[in-house]
Amino acid sequence: MSDVTDWWKTKIIRMEPGEIEFRGQPIQDLIQTQTFTQMIWLMVMGQTPSPAQTRLLDAALVASVDHGPQAPSIAASRMAITCGVGINNAIASGVNMLGDVHGGAGEQALELYQQILTTMIHHQSIQDATDDVLADRTGTGEKFIPGFGHRFHKPEDPRAQPLMAILRQCADEDPSIDKRFADIAEAVQDAIERIKGTRIAMNIDGATAAIYGALGVPPTLARGLFCLSRSVGLTAHAYEQSLNCERNKGPTPPSYRWTYDQT
Ligand SMILES: CC(C)(COP(=O)(O)OP(=O)(O)OC[C@H]1O[C@@H](n2cnc3c(N)ncnc32)[C@H](O)[C@@H]1OP(=O)(O)O)[C@@H](O)C(=O)NCCC(=O)NCCS
Questions:
Q1: What pTM was estimated for this model as a whole?
Q2: Segment-wise mean pLDDT, segments of 10 residues, the chain, 263 residues
């Protein structure tokens, strides 16, 4: 029968009638001892997080919850709920808008930081490694460095500096947290400033990518954690919108319409 029992082989959960255990810990104990953030870490990383790891993950999750109805994902969840779907469908509509361009920059920024970290073995300093990697990328036509720039927050995103400060504090408390990711993120921002001649904001994705890198979270999972955090905002907006009892709400007030251009 092992072909059947091994079909969904997992280290995450053991379940028998009357028993539930996550990563070797009974649910009865976890309910009494763990916060939701600790539970997220246990589930995805497989261990109980240290206090500093918990605080850092918590900060990243708090910072990413929402960016208002100008964010396509939030607008999608609000529009969806006016169509008569359930709140889960509205949340999923928003999550499904999170792709490489909206919400995916954190995964890409973390890949960039990891590339710089790897390149550091050939360089004297983080700055040299950063310049080298960015020169390669801009040389191949990459115009936008992921994790930097913002449509509204110029020249600083209000979320970045507090996140970098918490990252440095937590790394001082817990040596497993790799402070070099904060240095790399800041080196990338400085390098873009030298290239462009103007300060470009480190955005939420650039800052949380530094945190996830420092925590040892792989890029794919960093995107998953962003989606998890943004789901809080998607839920809040879908619920608030549902209270308005508006039906079939489109992307603009009905008095505004689109340009019909047949040229
Ligand atoms: C978010 C984004 C679309 C905003 O773009 P924007 O509103 O056009 O940005 P700005 O108007 O402030 O751009 C000003 C200048 O900085 C440059 N710039 C902006 N973001 C940049 C970045 N990430 N890397 C390099 N240059 C950037 C622009 O090309 C522009 O240069 P130019 O004047 O020579 O044309 C853009 O910054 C971007 O794609 N960033 C990378 C992806 C990302 O991190 N997304 C998550 C956003 S929360």
A1: 0.95
A2: 91 98 98 98 98 98 97 97 98 96 94 96 89 93 94 94 98 98 97 94 97 98 98 98 96 94 95
Candidates 63, 50, 40; CA nearest to 163 is 63
Distance CA 180, CA 113 (A): 9
Total Cβ atoms within 10 A of residue 87: 16
Q: What is the DSSP string of 177-216?
A: S-THHHHHHHHHHHHHHHHHSS---B-HHHHHHHHHHHHT
- Pick the atom of ligand 1 nearest to 109's CA: 44
How far apart are alpha carbons 121 and 17 in whole angstroms? 52
What is the 148 CA–ligand 1 centroid distance (Å)?
Answer: 7
Residue ranges of domains in the chain, CATH in brackets: 50-250 (1.10.230.10)
